């Protein structure tokens, strides 16, 4: 087994979450791991040690993840460091804050941590050197997180961030999950997808086809903030039922 010598910092106020993530990282052969319980402690740690990767919780007392990133903005303290932000919900406000404020975030995971998603991201990490290439840093904001929730007779598949070729490992089991969903309808929630390439478009069409073959009604949930215009221009409205909603509160109405 190859030991991966990246220096990693886990920042989370939940001790259980810190322990679970640290355990999974060590199983993936990462050994140099430190932890911090909030953004203030993380600032203290990065002042005296360089980290190749930081797992950063968003909602923490004293200093949360966004405030930590704002404190680091404009100074070279995170140069060569990649940041994966953790959050307890697919929160469009958090994504917009990261984008609008130009904060240093290279990836995004919605908790609870699914092992396949974490593994895909760690595998991508393993393809870089410890100093992280300029090419990888230029892709900051390439977020992907997936949730499949079932309520009543509808399952909701939430795709969050940027849907592109590099995330094919994390997406590989989605067709099976759609086919096995215990409901008669599937809502593909794309309100928080901010960018999509040809691979992502193909994945959405594949999900639609799998849902139809499994005799489930597929719906595409969009709003005007992200990629609605592009999908409509590509004719998605002719092959899928489109629902337009503006707020998270109305998603399950």
Topology:
Elements: E1 4-11, H1 15-27, E2 30-36, H2 39-48, E3 53-57, H3 65-72, E4 82-87, H4 92-101, E5 107-110, H5 115-126, H6 134-137, E6 144-151, E7 154-163, H7 168-171, H8 174-179, E8 185-196, H9 198-213, E9 217-222, H10 228-233, H11 236-239, E10 241-244
Parallel strand pairs: 1-2, 1-3, 3-4, 4-5, 7-8, 8-9, 9-10
Antiparallel strand pairs: 6-7
Helix pairs in contact: 2-3
Overview of the structural elements:
The chain is an alpha/beta fold. It folds into two domains: 4-137, 3-Layer(aba) Sandwich (Rossmann fold), CATH 3.40.50; 146-250, STAS domain (Transcription Regulator spoIIAA, 2-Layer Sandwich). 37% of the residues lie in helices and 28% in strands. It is built from eleven helices and ten strands. The strands form two sheets. Strands 2-1-3-4-5 form a five-stranded parallel beta sheet. α3 (65-72) links the parallel β3 and β4. The model is unreliable at 127-143 and 247-253 (pLDDT under 50).
How many individual domains?
2
Outline the low-pLDDT stretches: 127-143, 247-253
The span between the termini is 50 Å
At the fold tier of CATH, the topology name of the largest domain is Rossmann fold
- Spatial order of the strands in the main sheet? 2-1-3-4-5
Radius of gyration: 19 Å
CATH first level of the largest domain: which class? Alpha Beta
Helical segment count: 11
Mean pLDDT, nearest integer?
A: 76
Q: The biggest beta sheet, please?
A: 5 strands, parallel
Molecular shape: elongated
CATH architecture tag of the largest domain: 3-Layer(aba) Sandwich
Q: What percent strand? A: 25-35%
- Helices and strands: which structural class? alpha/beta
Order of helices and strands: EHEHEHEHEHHEEHHEHEHHE
Name of the CATH homologous superfamily of the largest domain: Response regulator
- Count the E strands: 10
């Amino acid at each position: 087994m190859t030991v991966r010598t990246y220096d990693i910092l886990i920042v989370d106020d939940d001790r259980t979450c810190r322990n679970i993530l640290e355990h999974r990282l060590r199983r993936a052969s990462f050994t140099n791991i430190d932890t911090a319980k909030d953004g203030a402690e993380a600032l203290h740690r990065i002042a005296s040690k360089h980290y190749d990767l930081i797992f950063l919780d968003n909602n923490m007392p004293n200093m949360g993840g966004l405030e930590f990133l704002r404190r680091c903005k404009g100074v070279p303290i995170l140069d060569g460091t990649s940041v994966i932000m953790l959050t307890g919900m697919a929160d469009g406000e958090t994504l917009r804050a990261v984008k609008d404020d130009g904060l240093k975030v290279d990836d995004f995971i919605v908790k609870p941590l699914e092992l396949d998603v974490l593994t895909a991201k760690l595998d991508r990490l393993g393809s870089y050197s410890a100093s992280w290439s300029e090419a990888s840093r230029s892709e900051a904001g390439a977020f992907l997180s997936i949730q499949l929730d079932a309520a009543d007779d509808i399952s909701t598949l939430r795709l969050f961030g940027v849907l592109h070729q590099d995330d094919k490992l994390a997406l590989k089991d989605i067709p099976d999950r759609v086919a096995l969903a215990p409901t008669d309808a599937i809502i593909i929630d794309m309100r928080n997808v901010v960018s999509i390439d040809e691979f992502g478009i193909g994945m959405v069409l594949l999900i639609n086809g799998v849902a139809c073959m499994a005799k489930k009604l597929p719906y595409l949930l969009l709003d005007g903030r992200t990629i609605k215009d592009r999908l409509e221009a590509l004719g998605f409205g002719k092959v899928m039922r489109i629902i337009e909603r503006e707020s998270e509160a109305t998603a399950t109405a």
